[in-house]
Amino acid sequence: MEKIKWFLFCVVVSLCSCDGYKILAVFPTPSPSHAILGDNMVKHLLNAGHEVTYVTPFAPKKKNQTNVHLVDVSDIQPFFDSAEEMLDFKQILAGSADLHDFKVIFEFFSTIADMVLGNPNVRDMMRDPKQKFDVIIVEYMFHDLFSTFSAVFQCPYIWFSTIGPHWIVMNLVSGPMNPAYTSDYLQAQVPPFTFMGRVRELWTQIKGLYNNKFDFYYVEEAIYQKQVVPILKELGKPVPDYNELKYNGSLLFGNWQVAIGNAVPMPPSYKDIGGFHINEEVKPLPEDLKKIMDNAKNGVIYFSMGSNLKSKDLPDDLKNGLMEVFGGLKQTVLWKFEENLPNQPKNVHIVQWAPQQGILAHQNLKLFVTHCGLLSLTEAVHYGVPVIAIPVFADQFRNANQARNKGYAERIDLSYNLHKDLKVVLDKVLPDLPRYTAKAKEISAAYHDSPMKPGEALNFWVEHVVRTRGAPHLRSVALQVPLYQQAYLDLLAVLLAAAVGILLVVRRIFSLLTSKSTKLKKN
Ligand SMILES: *[C@@H]1O[C@H](CO)[C@@H](O)[C@H](O)[C@H]1NC(C)=O
Ligand SMILES: *[C@@H]1O[C@H](CO)[C@@H](O)[C@H](O)[C@H]1NC(C)=O
Fold first, then answer.
1. Is-contact 324 426, C-beta < 8 A?
2. 437: containing domain
3. β-sheet bridge partners, residue 272
4. Closest residue by CA, ligand 2 atom 3
């Protein structure tokens, strides 16, 4: 008996102490949707028994947990907020919000990276000679600077991309994505492209790759030299070339599932983990909300523009117009809104805080009117709900176009006519709802039919990187082939030279012949 007890004790101890890795998670973007991703990634890692050091701007709002060490970078919040005013509805409606200039976006996020690497808490962590990690996971936000953590801690690192597969980030783990059928997230095209469409995509990538290899490269390299290199020297660690670091990611996690958009060729180091932020078990709805949804005989339409954009910034005409459109429907409407509105029709309910996953999971939910942020869209697909998309910024246009192309969504533009356009599209979708719903369910089934749940895949691949010391076998060989060779520019040069050579020879022969014949004639 004693022996068995001892044996069991040993089994338990070995189970508890075996596979826990030390992981650094860097998710410093101070926006709620990014925090949802970071928090849920940490949650999955903890559930698998790992110990996580979590760089987050929301540290002051978090409770201490066992196995989590918070590194507070909340000092970047004011800078972020100052720019977030760009996301004001009125400015977007007026077209004055500068959300499409890649240079502006790059400058903004590389400044944030500079602040994070210069943050005293982050620097203390980097300087601590006892600090060791098995692997690092960093959020990719339009700069490559967080790859430099891997030089400090001398361990493999993994990129995490918050948007669907995209040439800018894919460029870090493979060759360029073919612009003939992969759209830049701001171009937001869905293949097949027109001739001009393909030219635009090609030009976008050429311009972007030029920026990445030259302009932006020097800005980032300077930040690396300023913030990280002195620490490497202080600790007596080797100082790798910045280019070596940024192309040395072991994996790229995409917050994406192929069923949601277009399938495009991917390198083996790219892994879909989209949907990992969704709870496997739906949390019960609050009593009042549950009652509204349970009693909605004609079904529920849920309207939410996400957390970045506050619907209270909507112009009054638009608010009243929307209220009128919703009031004219036989369905119950749940409107996520941060203030209470007067004159609410009986079928319209304003919710200031909405447990979105619970609402989308309810059997009476019929339609989701959304800004088409990727988290919302993934949740819609997860629960098989058709969508009306009103994209506002960033990747939302591309998400919306892909969803429409798949047949479970319609798209309208945000404008002063939104209420009128919404009425038109509701009149189109609602009578035909079974068709949209069937399509949504079909895509949902494909999304769910996978060997591993997204959270399991996340842990499997993180552990795989540690077990295989950086997973070098997954890395695309394209990284070792210079761009001019991939594009066969050298062959082009040889062919051009040959053509010019032949032309010269032919001309020479021709001129010799003609001069001979004129000589003969003269004679
Ligand atoms: C969490 O732990 C840190 C350091 O151990 C401490 O300074 C901080 O007050 C704790 N926070 C809470 C909310 O308990
Ligand atoms: C690149 O990654 C591999 C595998 O993780 C590692 O052995 C190597 O030291 C890294 N190179 C640099 C420059 O960090």
1. no
2. 287-448
3. 254
4. 470
Counting ligand 2 atoms within 8 A of each CB, the residue from 146, 150, 480 with the most, and so the one to mutate, is 150
Going across the sheet that includes 157-161, the strands are 68-72, 51-56, 22-26, 135-140, 157-161, 251-254, 270-272
Q: Is 245 in the pocket of ligand 2 (CB under 6 A)?
A: yes
pLDDT tens figures, 8-39 = 554 454 444 456 999 999 999 998 899 999 99
Query: What's the pLDDT band for 98 if we cut at 50, 70, 90?
Result: low
pLDDT score of 102? 80
1 falls within a domain: no
Record the tokens describing residue 141, joined without a space. Answer: 């936000």
Nearest CA residue ID for atom 12, ligand 2: 245
Q: Compute, in angstroms, the gap from residue 13 CA to the centroid of ligand 2.
A: 33
Neighbours of 518 (CB within 10 A): 10
Summarised one tens digit per residue, pLDDT across range 299-343 is 999 999 887 667 667 888 888 999 999 999 999 999 998 888 888
Assess if residue 426 is contained within a domain.
Answer: yes
Q: Which residue has the higher pLDDT, 363 or 99?
A: 363
- The rounded radius of gyration (Å) of the Cα atoms in the chain is 28
3-class SS at 315? coil
Which ligand sits closest to the CA of 243?
Answer: 2
Hey, whose CA ends up nearest to atom 2 of ligand 2? 248
208 CA to middle of ligand 2, Å? Answer: 26
2: in domain: no
The tokens for 197 are: 């469409």
CA of 96 to the centre of ligand 1 (A): 43
Asked if residue 13 is part of any domain, the answer here is: no
